[in-house]
Amino acid sequence: MERGALHGLRIADFSRVLAGPYATMLLADLGADVVKVERPGTGDETRQWRPPADEHGTSTYFLGVNRNKRSVALDLSAEADRERARALVAESDVLLENFRPGTMERLGLGYEDLKARHPGLVYCSISGFGAGEGAAIPGYDLLVQAVGGLMSVTGEPDGEPMKAGVALVDVITGLHAALGIMAALRHRETTGRGQRVEVNLLSSLLSAMVNQASAYAVAGVVPGRMGNAHPSIAPYETFPTADRPLALAVGNDAQFAALAAVLGRPELADDVRFRTNPERVAHRAELRKALGERLCTAGADHWSAALLAAGVPAGPVNSLDEAFAFAGRLGLPGVVTVPGTDARQVAGPFALSESPTRYHLPPPALGEHTAEVFGEPE
């Protein structure tokens, strides 16, 4: 079995739910030894977040972000287990936690407590709203999508604000945490010193709002909801067809000319309202009407095939099972099985030629590896 690019790196993972566990799973996929510290009896809250569940009754939510990890059960309110936690940290390169700010300090496991003893430790803290004025605000993804502006630009113009269909802010924050950890480890390679890495859900969302956030920061524009349309590109949205919606992502004038030709309306590319992208954005309603009249004459799969053949980005709005099937047709991994087990997992996103993603441990049972990690008899 390939060792993985991060072989030899140990991570003491005090996180739970999604942002932290997603970050450590990505690092574990790349070869890191991740030891997940959980509360005895209940463990990570997401163990109870069901339905749905697998055939053994385990929450699929928990299973989705905790592969390739070992679990130890420690009661951090007890000094004996806090001492075991400190022993684990002493043998680790990275500590990641997402307790409410101040919790780890109260437990004697804060950054300043550990830095003096372990100057090479990379200590990553994930919070909802930072460790300052926002420290007391609970960091839940839905709340951050609301107060962070994402819901204000999601949904139909005349409808209510909507959240994304997945806890997207948690996922983005997990990615930021993993990147910050890797940057800190690179710094440690050259200086020998660890450091604290802090990420929070609100800052991660504001960064991830990219063009929408930049519109406000640079031009003072406060964007609103546009359904599936794009504020700066047209046509870049979904259209009804004879059977189901079709997504068109036309990014330049050449693609628009090809679209017009496939639809049998080549004259649209020379129409003064539609010749350039700014003109198409200015005349979005007329453009949508002209394209919709043609797209409704055939199904989404027909148009998708014809448009892709002409170099126009287009595709049907798939359900999740159709999305996995589509990935399979493209030769991309979708669902993988952990070798030697029946544990099915969503494939990792990395493709490294020399140190590929590894799947060697199914998501652990609560406390499954306590004795193994601490060298104690079972």
Overall tally of domains: 2
CATH 2nd-level architecture of the largest domain: 3-Layer(aba) Sandwich
CATH-defined fold name of the largest domain: Rossmann fold
Taking the sheet with the most strands, its summary is: 6 strands, parallel
Q: What is the CATH C-level name of the largest domain?
A: Alpha Beta
Strand order of the largest sheet: 3-2-1-4-5-6
Mean pLDDT: 96
The gyration radius over C-alpha positions equals 25 Å
Q: Helices and strands: which structural class?
A: alpha/beta
What does this structure look like?
GO terms for molecular function: CoA-transferase activity. Keywords: Transferase. InterPro entries: CoA-transferase_III_domain, CoA-Trfase_fam_III, CoA-Trfase_III_dom3_sf, CoA-Trfase_III_dom_1_sf. This protein is α/β, with parallel strands linked by helices and 378 residues long. It has two domains: 10-208 and 333-374, Crotonobetainyl-coa:carnitine coa-transferase, domain 1 (Rossmann fold); 246-316, formyl-coa transferase, domain 3 (2-Layer Sandwich), CATH 3.30.1540.10. The protein has 15 helices and eleven strands. It has helices spanning 19-29, 60-63, 79-90, 103-106, 111-115, 141-147, 168-191, 201-208, 210-219, 253-262, 277-282, 284-295, 300-309, 320-329, 370-374; strands at 10-14, 33-38, 69-73, 94-97, 122-127, 196-200, 236-239, 246-249, 314-316, 335-337, 344-346. A six-stranded parallel β-sheet has the order 3-2-1-4-5-6, with helices on both faces. The protein has a three-stranded antiparallel β-sheet with strand order 7-8-9, covered by helices on one side. The longest helix is centred in the middle third of the chain and has 24 residues, at 168-191. The chain is elongated, with a radius of gyration of 25 Å. The two termini are 27 Å apart. 34% of the residues are buried.
